[in-house]
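stuck on this fold:
=====
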Amino acid sequence: MKRITEKRERQGSFTVAMALLGSLIGAGFLSGQELCQFFGIHGSWLFAAVTLSMTVMGLIGAVMLRLAMDTGEGRMDKIVVFFDCQPLRVSIAVLEILFVFMIYLVGISAFGSLLDQMFGVSAAVGGALFTVLVFFLSLFGIKGLLRVFSLVIPTLVVLTVLISLVAMARAEGFAFPTGAPQGAVSGIWPLDGMSYAAFALFCMLPVLVPFGASMHPKKRPVSRGICVGMLLFTALALVILLAIATDPEVRESALPMIELATRQSVVFGVVYGFLLMCAIFSATLSAAASISEYFARTFASKKRFLIPVMAFVSLAAFALGLFGFENLVSVLFPIFGYLGTLPIMLLLIHAWRFYRSKRKNGVNT
């Protein structure tokens, strides 16, 4: 590995924690659907599943960030496939592209489900209109627009906690029913906990690797930052799960937290729905823009191909999105969790070899 010589930034623990949360908290999480799919079906065992999942995420997330910081390698494919194997690097890159495409199609489906749940608009019609809008916007510069939407998630997190606390304060008790697993969810709490951890770690890779590579190598806020970030993420996950447990019927909705918010107050429901709509729009547009930028580089010499290629990608995302938001979460998220195990294992092997080599050479880690 080449010696790190470029100037890099000093980051504190709070910045590390926020980077971690930024890679994990999205519309799927705050809607409550992915938590219900992975954890809400295990009755009271959900607490064990959450503990297992968050512990694994914290430990491996710290290794991921520390390795990127110490090696200075900010590319996901190279830090995962640390040896010279171009086909495997291409496979990891393709997996990353498929993951972004999955975010795109799940976002389209989620938007359609949101319009259906809030306003009675057909999910297919809502998804089609949303697909057309995102398709055209993805072809143009959207950085300024996305900066505006960057304020949505923090506001939505605060509102999520507020609604959850109101629901728990009004509740007579909590119910943790055991449900039937859907899609690729196993229904076995240790396996689902590990699957969610692998999925979340795969979400972390494209964010934490370049972030870690930009950090000053002599600064060591990693452990504290990861610990704070994971504690906050775990607390938020448990708050959402406990809030849903006050009224288990909301789990039947595509977007459980909107249903719960509406049952507490119509105003809560409208505001939460609007903010979630913005969050879905931001995440989906970011994914579509990433795909567009990738194909723009691929077809740099033939830019006329970009529009038909993106049109095909958008049409495919819309068609797959018709399977329904709940179904897509229950199938695609676990599958990417299982697939994400390979790059995570390769990264851990890279870390073991790298730090073993440093110890042999007498370099302090």
